[in-house]
Amino acid sequence: MAKPRRNVKFAHRSSLNTSSDFGGSRRDSLSGDDNSPLSPLRNGVTVDGADSHTGSGSPVLKVLPPTETKQRQNVKTSNLLTRAKTPPQEEPPPLSEYEKKKQTFITRTIWTLVMIGTFFWAMAAGHLYIVALVSAVQVITFKEVIAIANVPSREKKLQFTKSLNWYFLAATMYFLYGESVIYYFKHIVLVDALLLPLATHHRFISFILYMMGFVFFVASLKKGHYKFQFTQFAWTHMVLYLVVVQSHFIMNNVFEGMIWFFLPVSLVVTNDIFAYICGITFGRTQLIKISPKKTVEGFLGAWVCTVILGLFMTNLLMRYKYFICPVKDLGSNAFTGLECIPNPVFLKQEHEFPFWMQPVFGKILLVEPMQFHILAMATFASLIAPFGGFFASGLKRTFKIKDFGDLVPGHGGITDRMDCQFIMGFFAYMYYHSFIAVHSHATVGGILETAITSLSPEEQLEVVERLGRYLVGQGIVSDKARLPWTSTTLEAEH
């Protein structure tokens, strides 16, 4: 009978099912004592897995040499000391509701100042920079709104839906921007040999571009997805109308004079600020269910404040020709200034009070007509333009999203800040051309357009010759300064 080995104790049964990896994969004992019966190492004896020679699943006991046993015990002791010295990492406590609101307020304030600074920098830099800013806002807004409905197209693996959206945007912008440039800069476009064909056939080219997109859309229809694709087609065109077309009119306001761009934007911002202030101060009655935080008191209080501030801003801006003059040169800025004959709406005129107001205010009032027009614009900005924001709120609720994007920290997307601006800019354009614009019977650009598109080259030369004779006869130019086309030249050519 074999002699039993001394100083050998078998490990606890539960430890037999554990791994023999001493690199740290084995679960440590609760006490961290190597003499614990659960310890993988005790008195130089380890428990290994199945015997590879016998193939049995029984654990095999190994007696380690004293040197290796001491090394492993030292490693174990070192690991335990390291864990004891390392303090446990505590998670930071969650922010309170007050801290969250404070952090949000700081973020919103910082980015509000950034946006205001960018806006005023663009205004001082010139009309071209404002046009670029409007274009960037237009493209980003289109992207944010279109992205809401693009998610299902990726799920359905429809490849060309997104590409078609951007193509229709490019074709629409080409048409609208071209219309504006041709209308306001005829005197430049129509005398350039390269731009003249594009200007003459602009609408036909735009139509061909749109039809190419239309044909490609029909060719890309996929069986089983017809309803979804036609819905996307309609959604894209709705966004083009509500965003791109209305942005086009805002850009036209810039060309008519900086005041027609700055005032509508300022009125909407002013109304938004005072609606918030008046609402949290004495708001009690809910205004509309789709925006539960809007109150009747805030709505009406903002109207009064917007009218007052609008009168003040108008009286200030009318003093500077940079704001009231139409732009003829896109290279102009706040430092070069502009020169023009002011629109009569900016000049003081006599207005007679109704007889029942004369005992209080007198018979005659000397005031600029623009002071009356700003009342209408401020009223629209306060009572009608906010419904553009309500429309956007309903759209977000439909798609169950909080914001249209996260481009501006603390504010959401560009669309969240521009939802009222589009409809206000559209109104300002229509109001200006209906009640304020001075429609002259003839302009240099209009005469050039008629001469170039309606007269033959021989007739155009005759117009130049006769105009030269008129200028010499009136003493406006000398005979030597006349253009080289003379009646003799014309007769020889005929």
Automatic annotation (TrEMBL):
What Enzyme Commission number(s) apply to this enzyme?
Answer: 2.7.7.41
Compositional bias per record (Basic residues), positions renumbered to this chain = 1-12
Task: Name the segments for region: Disordered.
Answer: 1-97
Molecular-function GO terms, alphabetical: phosphatidate cytidylyltransferase activity
Q: Where is the composition biased (Polar residues)?
A: 72-81
Its membrane topology is listed as:
Multi-pass membrane protein
Query: Pfam families recorded for this chain?
Result: CTP_transf_1
What is the reaction catalyzed?
a 1,2-diacyl-sn-glycero-3-phosphate + CTP + H(+) = a CDP-1,2-diacyl-sn-glycerol + diphosphate
The alphabetical list of record keywords is: Lipid biosynthesis, Lipid metabolism, Membrane, Nucleotidyltransferase, Phospholipid biosynthesis, Phospholipid metabolism, Transferase, Transmembrane, Transmembrane helix
* Primary location recorded for the protein, binned into one broad class: membrane
Its top-level enzyme class, in one word, is transferase
Per the UniProt record, which residue ranges are transmembrane? Answer: 105-123, 129-152, 164-184, 204-221, 233-251, 257-278, 299-318, 372-392
Which pathway is recorded for this entry?
Lipid metabolism; Phospholipid metabolism; CDP-diacylglycerol biosynthesis; CDP-diacylglycerol from sn-glycerol 3-phosphate: step 3/3
Where does the UniProt annotation locate this protein? Membrane
InterPro entries documented for this protein: PC_Trfase_euk (IPR016720)
Return the similarity comment.
Belongs to the CDS family.
How is this protein named in the record?
A: phosphatidate cytidylyltransferase
Q: What is the protein's species of origin?
A: Discina gigas
